[in-house]
Amino acid sequence: MIIKTSLQSAPAIILIEPRESGNIGATARAMMNFGMKDLRLVRPKDHWLETFTRQMASGANDILNDARVYKTTQDAVSDLHVIYATASKKRDMIKPLFTPRSAAEEMKNLIQKGARIGLLFGTEPSGLENEDVMRASGLISIPTSEDFDSLNLSQAVLLIAYEFFQMYLPSSFAEVSLSGKRSSFATQEEVEGFLKHLEEELDMANFWRVSEKKPDMLQNVRNIFNRICLTQQETQTLRGILKALVYHRWGIFSKKNKTS
Amino acid sequence: MIIKTSLQSAPAIILIEPRESGNIGATARAMMNFGMKDLRLVRPKDHWLETFTRQMASGANDILNDARVYKTTQDAVSDLHVIYATASKKRDMIKPLFTPRSAAEEMKNLIQKGARIGLLFGTEPSGLENEDVMRASGLISIPTSEDFDSLNLSQAVLLIAYEFFQMYLPSSFAEVSLSGKRSSFATQEEVEGFLKHLEEELDMANFWRVSEKKPDMLQNVRNIFNRICLTQQETQTLRGILKALVYHRWGIFSKKNKTS
Predict the structure, then answer these.
(1) pTM
(2) I need a surface site. Which of A150, B6, B180, B222 has the fewest CB within 10 A?
(3) What is the DSSP pairing of strand A96-98 with strand B177-178?
(4) Inter-chain contact A94–B180, Cβ cutoff 8 Å?
(5) Do B144 and A58 touch (CB under 8 A)?
(6) ipTM associated with this complex
């Protein structure tokens, strides 16, 4: 599903001392999947933009090319208004604690009021230093299984970017829709045509055995086919199947007649 | 945030012809993060369980060790009741189309009714063959930006596993909470003690200048501190700051007095 949603004011993703080039590349890819563009790196290793970074970005080159590098977190966030820190470990600091979903809602509200937002992600695997967490007005923590709470850096970015993107989807996307060409649904008349045809053939085949049981059995048969929301093509296919089965039956009779 | 949620009946993740060992490892990690355990591989390459697979699994070894390998998709799904296919490309098949979120809701409902569920993921980068999509009772498609809809295989698994896990979180997790020790919040009496102390010192410092303006200005000052939801420790810190500032002021006077 490709969504035409413009996220001009999407949060900046700020990676502090990212160690693995692959994670920087995978972060760029995750950002681009969900409409984020502003990647900032604080003290990445030298030559962070290597072949493996591009491989993991898998085509999200614009984000890597536009990424800005800073010496300090302060420099990286100086033009932003509101900062959130991502934290897997418990911090003994009194700050609002968001899930990715509640943070996404809060961020959307703030962006509507003109705020520029930055999301801080710490180094692998230890996470953010308290010095950086302190800058944040809130913490974002991703709920994970108790068995295994170690999320990869780029996967943490992915989940938060994904939740942010969800906030901008048309509400219709929350509903279950149907894939394929909707225009080709069969009309009730077409479905009824097939069901009548089927009933006639079953009459001729003495399918119902006892005539009193026919109404209930017919209702069950009709329910099966009505539940599928048939398309025109499928209805034609079913009529074809029915004809073929009947033809086959008569064909055997014909052969038998010939050989007898 | 670590969640003690038991997902005994979480869906099986079925990777069909996965090409990259790294993706199998990262899939195992994503599954374990969100309480899924049942990994099935259809026709993986020989020696798929190599060092790089373990590296990318980053400790999710149980899932790799328990992973089952099958020759056909039919074999891989034979014990399951309901199958969903993940699909980024449009399919001209009439099937219910879910987002990861609406699929998670549907899956939870089905699991409560005793269904065992399987999620099919296709080979990188082309995705599922129609032959496999046909087995599914529904499609799951992840909404992405129009600029860049290519999701990595393990990231697609991650997002769907994440949404499934969300369904089992206590509803309180949807709300914004406070990190840190909640028990250490300051009582209103303690906050009031600080604010009274501040007011007295500001009186003495002739801060309000014009006495008619004091009520409004005092209200502004009180609003600043009341908005923070102070802890006991923070309230003590503020009183310490206040005393120190006042002491400093009098200290200068004392020095002046001495030198004068």
Answers:
(1) 0.76
(2) B6
(3) antiparallel
(4) yes
(5) no
(6) 0.73
